[in-house]
Description:
Helices cover 31% and strands 28% of the residues. It is an alpha+beta fold. It has 3 domains: 51-273, CATH 3.30.830.10; 288-491, CATH 3.30.830.10; 515-721, Lipoprotein localisation LolA/LolB/LppX (outer membrane lipoprotein receptor (LolB), chain A, Clam), CATH 2.50.20.10.
Amino acid sequence: MNRQRKTMKSTLLPTLTLAATLLIPASMIAQVDRTKAPLPGPAPEVHLGEHKSLTLENGMRVIIVENHKIPIVSAQVKFDIPPILQGDVTGYQDLVGELLTSGTPRHTKEQIDELVDGLGARLNGSNDGLYASSLKKNFPQVMDLLYEVVASANFPSEEFEKAKTRAMSQVQARADDPDQIADVVGRALTYGKNYPYGEVTTEASLGKASRDDVYQYYRYFFQPKQGYLVLVGDITAAEGEAMARKYFGTWKGAEVPVTKDEQGHDVVKDLGPIIPAGKDPRRPADVRMAFVDRPGSAQSVIKVVFPVQLKPNDPMALQAQVLNTILGGGVFNARLMQNLREDKGYTYGAYSSLDADRWCGSFSAGCSVRNDVTDSAVTQIMKEITDIRNAPVKTDELALAKSYMAGSFARALEDPRTVARFALNTYLNDLPEDHYETYLKRLDAVTITDVKQAAERLLHPDSCTVLVVGDKEQVAKSLEPLSGSGRVLDYDINGDIVRLDPTEGATPAPEGMKAQDVLDAYIKAIGGKDAVEKVRDVKKVYTTNVQGMPATLTEYNKAPNKYAMEMRMGEMVLQRINYDGQKGKLTSIMGEKELEDQELEEVLGNAYAFPELHYPEMEQVARLLGVITIDGQKTYRVSVETLSGGKIDEYYDVETGLKLRRRENQMQEGGGWIQVITDYSAYSPEGGVLFPHTLTQRGGMDMVLTATEISVNKGIPDSEFSTE
């Protein structure tokens, strides 16, 4: 120790110097307040390392990251593919990655596997590209194989059938896994099943998927103009550029014949229309309580979910990360973990996620608990989401979250592929060039106020879906008081609302036939699209009997999407619905109220005179389920899935194309659900379009509605639809 202090000027004897030196730490310790965290130092500088980027003449972007610590090189080919609807064949995209490496014109799957093993390499596919790695000495051969697969995968039919069988087994196994059920149904309820992220792979949809669906998807999307080649490892920039130009420089991609449909979507032969994500998913109007019944389950899986409009380049994205880390994002001291595990003892772990996404982000929080505390656990999760939104977080919580995030970031930098991933993310997500270099400084600058602002904007405990997967008989009743409507909605394991009747047996529709074909045939049968689109307004007046008394039902439609309905008994108005294209109002003998959530969605289904032309605009998806017989007539059964996950079944005559029946579950004003079946008959023309003049309704209030007036394009004033 004296040697350490030899540069100091002192007249003290060595022994006294030693004693004084030993006393210094003791006096310092006495002055330290260990109840307070030490002040953080300045955020360190981050140097990610250099990467080179270039763009080939075919539009493919190349990113090269040198790291010569070990003699390994990796290559990633990624295509920037937006989420698209899979529709009737949901699940086929999951087969793309597995089948990419299943054969080319030059090599069978077995030969590809042997080549990869012989080179000591890795080769893995995904639905948006490929990843490969090997020792540097073998990398040219790996690149040759990588290019061959990217440019000329041929998806052999026999390999497709094997992959489809494996995928079908996974779907079947999902029914026995409550966590998987919660994940699948949670996504469906977060985004809606008419949004790509909310679609659910079922045995039925996977059964309809064909090899052509997978192959044409690959041919359409695997194009150089939307591709990235990322090279990382023991390779120089010059070597990487030479390889990129050698293998991908002259690649042109497949020539895919494309036509346009009436909505302007690309239509690919043997795949169909490429329908991108439409409107942003909406949150429920209040707390929607959803339940998937698993009789005999000893535990409940709980998820609180809702969509979030948060993109990776949003200025608030980092604040959102900090917010989620404090709430339940992986730190043991997070609020959900401390409350539900440490304090209440309800669960082994409770977590949350708040994910940014280029198209639509999401929030999820939840845990697994025993049945008898399910309602209490839901209450506590909602409490924590509400509390962090309403009150500032504590200083030590913020410090711990930022420390945890900084440590995770530092550990990620130990992987040389991180630089490549960061560079790729920068391009894909339109981030500032210094986004990652400044990460720690920006993280250090996040304040308590920033976290509260993020919580106020992004967390919505009063507008969410609470999903519980468990034993309905033991649990569901206790959840009713926590629901905004006082009701618990039943869903099946595929995220579909449970019907009130058993599913009908149906024979398969003709091969290749889809719901759109049935809808097109219906529009043609009633007069053709040109005639239908000329209808700007319609007034329909029906007579009927209500409880033995004569009544009149009048409906009004006005383009593009205004609707009104009035039910009268003599001079007394029993019920009136007005929808002005945005808001809806119900007037009845019980008073007036604004329509919201499920009730508003039901009105939206009537807002178009011919809704069959407007399902995409209403964010509804039609699926063809097969052929069934109604009163001796063969009909196509088309299921229309609504934004909230509900279903409407419609039945179209196989021979004439006309609609014969509609079946739906309707929410009653006093609460509860009831199934309503409406049969359509006596079609005759009005204004150049066929309309059914007799409607026979069963369920709730049985009645026969007979049209006494159907007038087309006679002019209906906007005041008829006013909600004021």
